[in-house]
Amino acid sequence: MTTSFDFTNPLVNGIHARPAAEIEIRAKRYSCQITLMNKTKGTQADAKSVLSLVGADVVMGDDCLLVFEGADEQAACEAIKSFIDRDFASCDEPLEVIEADVNQPLPVALVKAEPDLVRGTIVSPGIGRGRPVVCSKIDLHQLAIDVQLQSGSNVESVLAKALFTLCQQLEQEIVETESKSSHEEITILKAHLQIAGDSLFSESLVKFSTQGNPIHAIAKASDELKVPLLKSQSNYMRERALDIDDLCARLAGIVLGKPLQQPIVLSENSVVIADNLTPSEFLALDKQLLKGLVLAEAGQTSHTVILARSFGVPVLTAVEGVNAFAHGTDTLVVDASYGCLIREPNEKVDKFYLLEQRKQAAKTSILTPFATSQGQSKDGKRMALFANIAMGMEAGSAFGRGAEGIGLFRTEMLFMDQEQAPDEDEQFEVYREVIEAAAGKSVIIRTLDIGGDKPLPYLELPEEENPFLGYRAVRMYPQYQAMVETQLRALLKASRYGQVDIMIPMISCMEEVEWISQLCQQCQAQLQAEGTEVGQWRLGIMVEVPSARYLIEKVAGLIDFISIGSNDLTQYFMACDRGNRQVSSLYDSFHPGFIAFLRDIARAAKSAGLELGICGEMASDKRALPLLLAMGFDEISMSAPSIIPLRAELAKVDFDACGKLLDEVCAQGTADQVKACIEHFWQQQEKPEILSESLVIRCDANDKAGVIKQLTDNLEVQGRTEKADAVEQAIWEREAIFATSLGFGVAVPHCKSDAVSHNSISIAQLEKPIIWNEAEGEAVSAVIMLTISSRDEEGTHMSIFSKLARKLMHRDFREALMNPAASSGETIALLKGILYEQVA
């Protein structure tokens, strides 16, 4: 007898290692045989093997059947069906994909520089320059022929020992990486450890060990394990084959007693060219000298590409004939902004990239003051910007990116992927690291938020019909009180290095707050009785459950702060599972009812004298920024890269105007109406004058292309367009119709374009005259560029153009305009005197 159920795979990346591990963890709790059948493709897998599940090639939308056969099949079916129905969709997330058109036109200024180039596909953005370094690929089959191994050894035993060593190495690398490197690197190393420890991996090695050569066995096993991946319809799944290559190459190296390929040594700034690089090979490269990668086979979701993005290394792929193109070349430019590879750049190409660097530096410079400033509105209303982190080692980077504090340290990572909970000393060291990195800044550490939707194997938590509404977070603390006390003691011990804010998740009733407050006091008393110093600490709660709103005034004497978890609070308020595609459209934090509820919570917190914060997606959403400021939030917490740009946006808004916006959106009927109000608000905040001193540049260009590029680049720097190259293209399209030199040494290039955010008049004060109209040999000494948004319906474009043309007939105006001693302010005043009343 068998039991089964059907489901359609909801995961955009398919069932790869991470979601497969979630199925495997649950399947291994039961003795019955559990088989996953991919009905769409006719494949099947052992649900207790990550590799087998991955090999079933289950992509998004595939129809699947899980079959249970054995003594406990009914219990297994019910538990895993509950997981698939309610939680499976949220156990993975889409990977970052670079939206780049492989046929996008190159910037006009670059085309006119006549570079020697080939096109490629952007998979990691940026621009790099260096000497080409070409890498060869390891062929395990050829290696099996070439190497002479000592006879007499039992091949199966040799492979088992090598596999054990490989797993040990990966475990050690994970431990070392957790203290010094990126989240992406740790995630990939853990995925590799899952594959190396999978029964299917070892079984495949044993299968081919009878042929007498361990290297041959590894090569054959690699081929067999990659077959279902390479046949997949999913790019993501096909790219996982490289992880098999990586592990098998490492395993062969262990058998031989040395790495198969010495690490690539870079002695100068370099561009590495390869069919592909394994994650291990990439991590071995000197990142200070690695300026770019050109890979033949890598895709958007390759683990190597994910690592490259985390290190800021530009990567191109699908570059036709790259080896021949790079042969004999001293210098390559990897342009992963516009998708091209350039060899031996000429002087004009060098000038183009110098201007690109200048543009990026100017954009960074504008944001630089916001890297160290405090978050506040234009009229001085304070709201701090904190960072979310998941591991202790992220704290230093977060503060380096402008965080004013840590608003959410998710401690679950300390407890996951281990055979038992971390002890007090292990936790203490991590918390101390974060507190010391904060150097007096606020640190909010959330206690363990675990439960049915985020299981810990060693806790053996029961499967639940609805884990999101079930036995999780603070609700399970009494049963696991010893583990909770260990965490609280570690936090309190760490408080002697700086104040610790302890935040309790999933609070829904008064009794929970009273119980956890008493437990904190007990832990403090125990530590002090043991002679351990305890510093300053505060207690707070997460408001994720709507009922918590009505506890705020009652628990104010027991807590010091609250932090709203906007993701969970939204889904509970709207009674919809955000991972359920059938109702996910209801999940919208900009529903006017939810915003009004949020305002109500904020008012209660302020009335009770509690510090108020928010984390979750809403905290980093620019649209929510004026609403949160108006509600009186003391801090908002987000991923570190969002902090500086959002602080710059906060400085643009007026507190009173935000209050009016809040009243307006709460009176709306739909989320779309709310968003329309917010969009109009930002348009009003960001409506710069058409004439500004920031649009006057001293231009060192020696040709027309350089002038137009510098002017359009400045528009991007000043936030008047998001794509300078699109405005540049629009200007040149107008120039193709007729040259815009109006005589008397002045040119007025102009366009009306969707790429223009704000109407602008830009002025280039040239260091020397340049040829503008090549057909006539006409030179200009001053350039006035007019860029108008396509949304402008007031005739601004032609009105200004005609007024300028008429005024240029007057010698005194031209002389004043071209006066090299004139300041930016004087130039703007000159133009305003003629145009202001008509343009305003």
Q: Helicity level, as a percent range?
A: 40-55%
The count of strands amounts to 25
* CATH fold-level assignment of the largest domain: TIM Barrel
Average the pLDDT over all residues and give the rounded result.
86
What top-tier CATH class of the largest domain fits best? Alpha Beta
Rg, nearest Å: 31 Å
Contiguous runs where pLDDT drops below 50 for at least 5 residues: none
Strand neighbour order, sheet with most strands = 5-12-11-7-8-9-10-6
Q: Categorize the overall geometry.
A: globular
What profile does the largest beta sheet have?
8 strands, mixed
Beta-strand proportion: 15-25%
| CA(first)-CA(last) distance | 81 Å
Structural class: alpha/beta
By CATH's scheme, which homologous superfamily of the largest domain applies?
A: Phosphoenolpyruvate-binding domains
* Number of individual domains: 5
Number of helices: 33
Task: Please name the CATH architecture of the largest domain.
Answer: Alpha-Beta Barrel
Q: Your description of this structure?
A:
- InterPro entries: HPr-like (IPR000032), HPr-like_sf (IPR035895), PEP-util_enz_mobile_dom (IPR008279), PEP-utilizing_PTS_enzyme (IPR050499), PEP_util_C (IPR000121), Phosphohistidine_dom_sf (IPR036637), PTrfase/Anion_transptr (IPR016152), PTS_EI-like (IPR006318).
- It comes from Photobacterium rosenbergii.
- Residues 1-94 form the HPr domain.
- Helix content is 44%, strand content 17%.
- The chain is of the alpha/beta class and 840 residues long.
- The protein folds into five domains: 3-90, HPr-like (Histidine-containing Protein, Chain: A), CATH 3.30.1340; 108-136 and 264-350, Glucose Oxidase, domain 1, CATH 3.50.30; 140-256, Orthogonal Bundle (Enzyme I, Chain A, domain 2), CATH 1.10.274.10; 373-685, Phosphoenolpyruvate-binding domains (TIM Barrel); 693-839, Mannitol-specific EII, Chain A (3-Layer(aba) Sandwich).
- Helix 25 (625-631) links the parallel strand 19 (611-615) and strand 20.
